[in-house]
Amino acid sequence: MSKYDNALEIAPGVYWVGFYDKNAGFHCNPYLLVDGDEAVLFDAGTKPHYEIIMRKIMEVVNPINITHIVLHHQDPDLCAAVPDMERLCSPDLKIVSSWRAGVLIAYYGIKSEFYYVDRNNYQLKLKSGRTLKFIPTPFCHCPGSIVTFDEKTGVLFSSDLFGAFSFNWDIEAGPYYMEAMKAFHEPYMASKEILRRSIERIQKYPVKIIAPQHGSVLKGDKVAEAMSILKELDCGDEFIPWQEV
Ligand SMILES: [Fe+2]
Ligand SMILES: [Fe+2]
Q1: What is the mean pLDDT of residues 187-199?
Q2: CA 167 to centroid of ligand 2, rounded, Å
Q3: Distance 112 CA to ligand 2 centre (A)
């Protein structure tokens, strides 16, 4: 029995509900935000891990309270569990994404209605008045990629940005995290300039905690440190040597 067998609160009302796989070097992190009788799930998770994720969600809330699932881009590590999940969520469940990601996400066979952030002023107001802000991060790593900033807690749900390969995984980023984060971004993000533009957009928000979809949660000084590293990182176009075929 380890602490990772249960949902973990990473900020007030914000829970990690992922699967800790001791044998994997790559961890997927869905997060659940609870706001009164409403809940929002971020980057819901993989199909093979669906039952584990759902059990952890149920430790925290009745899934019928989940009114929104935010999908920051269309990859299967964050979308594939949704067709199973949506059956247990609110009958008014909305899938929150950019339009560009949403046109592809629909092919998972998701039945719920979409809420496109780019047609809703890049924000979502919950029943309580709490506002989630969405920040476009194009080509980091998909054309329609976005991230979410929760004004109340200062948590940035950053999806693949700030992620890392994670042998010796822990929920909080340890001393070697920055190297693992670089190794993930170098082949995955489109180019240094594109990554820099997204980080500069994110830096306009008072981020206190970064909750990435891979790797570990960043707090304290690590938030600013990670941002300054990614702004200068040679990645994608600069990193992968192009070869004639
Ligand atoms: Fe991805
Ligand atoms: Fe991912």
Answers
A1: 96
A2: 16
A3: 22
Q: How far is the CA of 142 from the centre of ligand 1 (A)?
A: 7
Evaluate whether 145 touches 159 at the Cβ level (below 8 Å): yes
CA distances from 38 to 15, 46, 108 (A): 14, 23, 25
Distance CA 39, CA 191 (A): 35
Cα separation, 237 vs 83, whole angstroms: 35
Q: Quickly list H helices, the chain.
A: 50-60, 76-79, 82-85, 99-105, 177-188, 192-202, 221-231
Distance of CA 145 from the midpoint of ligand 1 (Å): 9
Q: From the CA of 190, how far away is ligand 1's center (Å)? A: 12
Separation between Cα atoms, residue 21 and residue 73, nearest integer Å: 23
Q: Under 8 Å CB-to-CB from 177, ≥6 apart: which residues?
A: 164, 215, 216, 218, 222, 226
* Fold assignment, 3-231: Metallo-beta-lactamase; Chain A (3.60.15)
In the chain, where the domains are located: 3-231
Alpha helices in 17-123 (DSSP H): 50-60, 76-79, 82-85, 99-105
| Ligand 1 centroid – CA 78 distance (Å) | 8
- The Cβ of residue 202 has, within 10 Å, a number of other Cβ atoms equal to 21
Would you state the structure tokens that stand for residue 52, as one six-digit string? 């584990």
Angle at 137 between CA 132 and CA 143, to 5 degrees: 120
Whether 244 has a pLDDT exceeding 60, the answer reads: no
**pLDDT reported for residue 243:** 55
| 57-82 residue pLDDT tens | 999 999 999 999 999 999 999 999 99
Give the integer Cα–Cα distance in Å for 216 and 37.
Answer: 28
Residue positions counted in the chain: 245
